[in-house]
Design brief:
It contains 8 helices and 6 strands, in the order ααβααβαβαβββαα. It is an alpha/beta fold. The chain has a 6-stranded mixed sheet with strand order 2-1-3-6-5-4, sandwiched between helices. The mean pLDDT is 97. Bound molecules: iron/sulfur cluster (SF4).
Length: 232
């Protein structure tokens, strides 16, 4: 299986009834500002090269962001905050992400999420997180030959990614590392392969960025540490 094949299969997934209904209803009703848009309304696959050495793990697509455009963090302020930081570090060729044909390219970074469909109120249930986990585990397994660090945005992603990392072949220490902004933990590969360094970072949601809980400098600092570990 290749990452492209995985992405292709993912976009047909209908395993979570509540999320299927929500993503499709949002695509039908739209936000007025996007009335002309043909919303994506499906699972949003990971974005970035298949030989990425840094993984960024978010939460879930936004109803009028990724669920509208079909690409991770594309079409909303959270995405512009993230891509702007990646641009500053030379890991993206543009500061903003507006639609799938905008020419945005990432260097050595793959962005994904533990839940691939937009949830009501941006809150997936634990059951939905568990149902979507095999997709994340498969993606991480495919990235294993090259990925050396992962930046996890927010506590939900942090908890969701641990079992997926175990399924993909890394050993998670017990007790499990605790989430916090600036948290850092190195996971051994179960088969003696390359380790993975995990970094915790507050989520780039407007709730955090508007209030100054997460500043551009704080995000750049974590991303740049993750890029350094990965040799980018
Ligand atoms: Fe499938 Fe994941 Fe979407 Fe659930 S959230 S329907 S498992 S892609």
């Amino acid at each position: 299986e290749t990452l492209a094949e995985l992405d292709e299969a993912l976009i047909d997934c209908r395993a979570c009834p509540r999320l299927v209904e929500w993503r499709e209803e949002t695509a039908r009703t739209k936000r007025r500002a996007y009335a002309d848009w043909d919303y994506w309304g499906r699972p949003v696959p990971g974005f970035g090269p298949p030989d990425a050495s840094v993984a960024i793990v978010g939460l879930a697509p936004a109803a009028h962001g990724g669920n509208r455009t079909g690409r991770m963090f594309t079409g909303d302020r959270a995405g512009d905050f993230l891509y702007s930081a990646l641009y500053d570090l030379g890991l993206a060729n543009r500061r903003t992400a507006t639609h799938r044909g905008d020419g945005l390219e990432l260097r050595g970074v793959r962005i994904t999420s533990p839940v691939h469909c937009a949830p009501p109120a941006n809150r997936p249930t634990p059951g939905e997180r568990d149902t979507c986990r095999p997709w994340l585990a498969r993606e991480l397994r495919l990235l294993r030959p090259t990925v050396r660090s992962a930046v996890v945005l927010g506590a939900f992603g942090w908890q969701a990614v641990m079992p997926a990392l175990e399924a993909a072949g890394w050993s998670v220490p017990r007790p499990r590392p605790v989430f916090g902004h600036g948290a850092r933990s190195t996971l051994r590969a179960a088969d003696g392969g390359a380790p993975l360094t995990l970094f915790g970072c507050y989520h780039v949601s407007q709730q955090n960025t508007f209030t100054g809980r997460l500043t551009p400098a704080m995000l750049r600092e974590v991303l740049s540490a993750a890029a350094e570990v990965a040799g980018l």
